[in-house]
Prior knowledge:
The complex is a heterodimer of chains A (80) and B (323). Chain A is mainly alpha-helical and 80 residues long.
Amino acid sequence: MERQEIEKRVKEVVSRILGVDESIITPESRFVEDLGAESVQSLELVAAFEEEFGIEMEEDAALQVKTVGKAVDFINKYLK
Amino acid sequence: MGILNTLIQRTSSLDKSVILPESNDPRIIEAAVLLVEKSVAKPVLCGIPEEIMAAFEKCGKSCSGINIVDINDTELINEFAFLYQKQRPNVSEKVALRLVKKPLIFGGMMVASGRVDAMVAGAASTTADVIQAAALTAGYQKNISKASSFFIMEMPDSKIYFFADCAVNISPDSETLADIGIATASSFKKLMNEKPLVAFLSFSSKGSASHPDVEKVVKAVEIAKDKDPETAYDGEFQVDTAVSETVARKKLKEIGEVAGRANVLIFPDLDAGNIGYKITQYLAGAKAYGPVLQGFAKPVSDLSRGAKPEDIVAVAAITCLLS
């Protein structure tokens, strides 16, 4: 899958789970500081990414990812 | 009889149930057996039944009296996913199905759905994981939007104080500090069957010093009183003003209901709270029980990673009383 396609789908998931407009999400956006994610939502984001891409991620490492761009990189590793 | 035995005895008379979702840990197996043997509460374990049974066999223990729930039970999983999604509509059905299969979330849903009275976890998970699971499933109690924790401090003369927050919130703002006060007052009422007298602590007593940190505490008192007018909150107080009537009479024009008689002490931040409880424990010879998590709509508490089976029984007894 192309990185651009992953990024598009990551943004869709983030927008749905966090209830923010997709247009404000950039690769540099930090989940907590910029997109207003509560810490409890991180588990939901990880589960939503797993469902979206049909992958199983290492949960502790996934929960350390802080920005949208890093999430794209992290998911990309599982899709290769 | 010490406070811990009193609380355990009270729980025993109430026929409560508690889920311990970390069933792959041998300490949990032993704690479940102890809960049955001492008739403290009905233990519920969740996981893969064959694996749990094998763990009992390995420990040489009987699982008689212990309710084992299959974490892959389709009917339960579907019900929990439905309930989860109802509470948190941003999550799709498929994502909810994925989440409720996680042991801590499954355990939380057992509590949220009313199947058990309480959940105790943390022997093999972090405090943050337990708080996250509780917040996503049980949610927060009325007027509260943050989890916190309290310690039961039993002084050498048997007097009991509740100290908070000594373990979770590092640098609480006024709103969070108010939440900590409200949650601790509620925990005190449930456990002690006594009126909580809640003092918000500072290095100042009623304006004796002026500083933004003092203002933070003053604002927290106002918020707590506003959100929960039935409970006695007061401050800002230095700790001597809070617990000594003699000092309170010297330092304050009017001492009110709380000053000098406080039984719940709310520390302004984690530095003060953590240092305060350890000083009381090590220099004053108090016994410290906790930290017990609080603030959730249904009781969920955490364990220290080094918890022994007896510690798990004690936390389970206290947590059940918070229901």
